[in-house]
Specification:
Layout lengths: L18 H22 L1 H10 L11 H8 L9 E2 L4 E3 L5 H4 E3 L4 E2 L4 E3 L4 E3 L4 E2 L4 E2 L2 E5 L6 E7 L2 E3 L4 E2 L4 E2 L4 E2 L4 E2 L4 E2 L7 E4 L4 E5 L26
Parallel strand pairs: 1-4, 2-5, 3-6, 4-7, 5-8, 6-11, 7-12, 8-13, 11-14, 12-15, 13-16, 15-17
Antiparallel strand pairs: 9-10, 17-18
Helix pairs in contact: 2-3
């Protein structure tokens, strides 16, 4: 009798699937399904889909309410969100991890990673193309410097801050109240209140007055209170 006459499971070089293999396959499918559920964030995507047909900035009057309805209960109704945000995160907790206070304004094309909590305080302005990330990795060996383990670190933008066009805020940063992060800056360290931050990596190049007594790109004060370029008395 040739091998073609045998049932398929008994042909040479083949074997019946074992119970362990079946369980392993089911576990892999279950893990894949859990990952898809955690990463899909369907309620968030539905809120964005409803708001997307609206003209930019017009959505600002409804998006905070749409996000709240989707489950982002820490987004205040009085926050102004100009256009659908790009929210990322591998955790199902993204709905708890976004905090936007009343009076904050978020512009267009803003990306926020929500593996840890991101807090945007009252009176803050987040300019277009800003990127805020909370997920980081520890350094691995020379064969793989980016270790696979994700280490979430929260980001806080305190009250009254202005984050300029296309600035990048990295995990674990706290931006002190009333600070300005200039356009294109890459902020990798926390800064004290009323800081003026510029450059890549971002550094504090001066301090801003408490009052609104200036107009211009760099109305800064030194640590001793004198304006930048002015000699101390």
């Amino acid at each position: 009798m040739s091998s073609r006459d045998h049932p398929p499971s008994y042909r040479r070089g083949t074997s019946l699937p074992t119970l362990g293999n079946v369980r392993s396959a089911k576990e892999k499918v279950g893990q894949l399904a859990a990952g898809l559920r955690a990463g899909a964030h369907l309620r968030y995507r539905l809120a964005n889909a409803v708001a997307r047909p609206l003209p930019e900035f017009m959505a600002g009057f409804v998006l905070s309410r749409l996000y709240r309805a989707a489950g982002f209960h820490n987004v205040d109704r009085a926050a102004f969100i100009s256009a659908p945000m790009r929210l990322t995160g591998t955790s199902s907790n993204i709905y708890e991890n976004l905090v936007i206070a009343a009076g904050a304004a978020v512009s267009t094309d803003v990306t926020v990673n929500l593996d840890a909590v991101v807090t945007i305080g009252p009176g803050c302005t987040i300019s277009p193309y800003v990127r805020i990330y909370t997920a980081t990795h520890r350094h691995g060996s020379s064969t793989q410097r980016c270790h696979p383990d994700v280490r979430p670190r929260p980001v806080t933008v305190e009250a009254g801050c202005w984050i300029g066009l296309a600035a990048i805020i990295t995990p674990g940063v706290v931006i002190g109240r009333g600070s300005v992060v200039s356009a294109g800056a890459v902020l990798t360290r926390s800064v004290p209140p009323n800081s003026f931050v510029s450059g890549n990596p971002g550094v504090v190049v001066g301090f801003l007055p408490e009052g609104a007594d200036w107009i211009g790109p760099r109305p800064m004060r030194n640590a001793d209170g004198t304006r930048v370029g002015q000699r101390a008395k």
